[in-house]
Structure formats: C-alpha cells, structure tokens
Amino acid sequence: MNEMQSMQKDSMDSLPSIWITIGVSGSGKTVVGRLLSERLECDFLEGDRRHTLANIKKMASQTPLDDTDRKEWLLRIEEDIRRVKLLKSEAVITCSCLKSSYRKQLTSLGQVQLVWISVPEEVLKQRLALRDKHFMKPEMLNSQLASFERIRSDERVIVVNGVLKPSEIVNEIIRQAVQRFPCLRLSWWQRSGMLEQ
C-alpha cells in the first residue's frame, strides 16, 4: 500500500470538505478564513452575507439577534454546506456559531470542521473600535460574549490563538489539521478524488 492509499484508508471517512471559522465579532473569522481558503486552494464564503436584511438592520441598530432571527441564517449556511458536498468540493465558511446547538446543527451534516479563533475580550474591543464600516458595532460585543457557550471537549473544533498574526493562525490551523487528517498534505485535486469515493 503506497502513502496516498494509506492516507485514503485512514482519513477518507472523516476528511473535512467544509471548514468553518467561528468566533465572536472581531475575532478575525473573515481574515483568517480567506487565508485558510487560499492555503487549501478552495472557495471562501462569508457567512455574514447569509443574514437577512432584517437581521443586518437589527444588528446595525445595536439590537442583539435571538434564536428566531438566526434560524434562517443558519439554514442558509446549511444550504451552502450541502451544495459544497453535492459538488464534491471544498470551502471555508465564516459563522459565529456562538451556541453549541448551532455548532451541532452544522457539524451534523458531516465533513464539517470548526475552527474556533479565541481572542481575549480586551483585544476584541480594541479591534472593533477601529472597525468603522461594519454593521456589527462594538456595543454588540457584550451580547455576543453573553451568548457564547463554551466549546466542549466532545465537539469537533480546532482551537487557535487569535492574537497571533493571521498567517501564524493559519499555520497553526494547518498544523493541527494535518495531525488529525494526514491526507491534507495532498494537493486539492488529490483530496477531491478522495471525496468522490
């Protein structure tokens, strides 16, 4: 059995085709997600663009979203995941995934790997204070932190230090991911071949 066949045998069942960078506003989901998609040579989808206009207006007015508001948003992200899987493709998606029920909803679709970007509250506040063109204002951070449910040990989540430089964060994601999924050392077209099986 050659190296590629061995990787296929060991990793095919659990090989992620969808990577979701998760965290509160200001954690770097988009910046890191874009860089990760470049490293994986796959598509990138901004989860905030799946919010309804009503949700965006609500957040822009500094009104926190509730579970009802997020229901349609999560269903739209589900659709993206199903589309990627149907095409036997790969993608990186951003989504805050603050609650364990949200994370379970998305990972239950299979082949989904979450990446939690952990950033101290003070650093988040500093970042958001410098961001003036986003609908999510600094005042909304407290509501997101209050909604966040701690990552459990049984969840399929890679946790990384979000204070590092974005390129270093992606290096750490790749390092942890390759330990779990050795086939990630293969090129994108070889991984695509594995997803076809």
Describe the structure.
This protein has 9 helices and 5 strands. The longest helix is centred in the middle third of the chain and has 20 residues, at 67-86. By secondary structure, it is of the alpha/beta class. It has one domain (17-180): P-loop containing nucleotide triphosphate hydrolases (Rossmann fold, 3-Layer(aba) Sandwich), CATH 3.40.50. A 5-stranded parallel sheet has the order 2-3-1-4-5, sandwiched between helices. Mean pLDDT is 89; it is low at 1-13. Helix 2 crosses helix 8. The radius of gyration is 17 Å and the shape is globular.
| Assembly context of the chains | single chain
The helix/strand series, from N terminus to C terminus, equals HEHEHHEHEHHEHH
Residues in β-strands, percent: 5-15%
Largest sheet: 5 strands, parallel
Strand order of the largest sheet: 2-3-1-4-5
Q: Note poorly predicted spans.
A: 1-13
* Average predicted confidence as pLDDT: 89
CATH hierarchy, class:
Alpha Beta
CATH superfamily: P-loop containing nucleotide triphosphate hydrolases
> What is the domain total for the residues?
1
Rg is 17 Å
Tell the overall outline. globular
- By DSSP (H or I, 4+ residues per run), the number of helices equals 9
What percentage of residues falls in helices of 4 or more residues?
Answer: 40-55%
- Going by CATH, the architecture would be 3-Layer(aba) Sandwich
CATH topology: Rossmann fold
Q: Calculate the terminal CA-CA distance, rounded to whole Å.
A: 18 Å
Give the helix/strand class. Answer: alpha/beta
Number of strands: 5
